[in-house]
Specification:
By secondary structure, the protein is of the alpha/beta class. The chain has a single domain, classed as 3-Layer(aba) Sandwich (Rossmann fold), CATH 3.40.50. Helices cover 29% and strands 33% of the residues. A 7-stranded mixed sheet has the order 3-2-1-4-5-9-8, sandwiched between helices. It has a two-stranded antiparallel ribbon with strand order 6-7. Helix 4 runs parallel beside helix 5. The relative contact order is 0.16.
């Protein structure tokens, strides 16, 4: 919950949101660490966090009592029947195949307001390195390593303008050394 190395990038996302009551979707919100940071920066946010795992939603509700969190699959964004000024998906893409990631980006474009902001982060790597990995709870989960070029192409092909594209080394405590990719993009129009 206290990983701070991405805070500056989350702040950049916040700074691109419109002033006033901006609506933000935290897709694949996990235990709410990103939502908690966003609320610290912008108490005026109308924030909805979604995650497929009921335990993650429960933890997010505890971490951010003023937020709204629901069990929902980020592969079904259209079912939310809402529009947002910003969508942040901090390390949700490793749980999606490349095809699902491209579909997520397209769906995010559709539900973002004009000039809306998208934040994506993932771990870069070769597709053949993808597979079952043990997470901190001891459970095994399938992790997909993405390639930078196809991911960035998906963002641009949807009609986003990339505001920031940055590679950084994974946290030192990570079970596997990787390079992380962060993309912040704005919807045109």
């Amino acid at each position: 919950m206290d990983l701070t190395m991405y805070d500056g990038l989350y702040r950049e996302f916040c700074d691109l949101l419109p002033q006033g009551r901006a609506s933000v979707l935290d897709a694949a919100c996990g235990p709410g660490n990103v939502s908690r940071y966003l609320f610290r920066q912008r108490r005026d946010l109308d924030l909805l966090g979604i995650d497929l795992a009921p335990r993650m939603v429960e933890l997010a509700r505890e971490a951010v009592p003023s937020g709204k969190f629901e069990i929902h699959d980020c592969r079904r964004l259209a079912d939310l029947k809402r529009r947002f000024d910003g969508i942040i998906c901090a390390f949700g893409l490793p749980y999606l195949s490349p095809e699902e990631a491209a579909a997520f980006i397209k769906a995010a474009f559709e539900i973002l307001e004009p000039r809306g902001v998208l934040y994506l982060s993932t771990m870069l790597g070769r597709s053949e390195d993808s597979g079952l990995e043990r997470c901190s709870s001891g459970d095994q989960v399938y992790i997909t390593y993405h390639r930078e070029e196809p991911l960035v192409c998906s963002v641009q092909e949807c009609g986003f303008t990339i505001v920031k594209q940055q590679r950084i080394p994974s946290p030192s405590a990570a079970p596997k050394t990787t390079t992380d990719l962060i993309v912040i993009a704005r919807k045109l129009g």
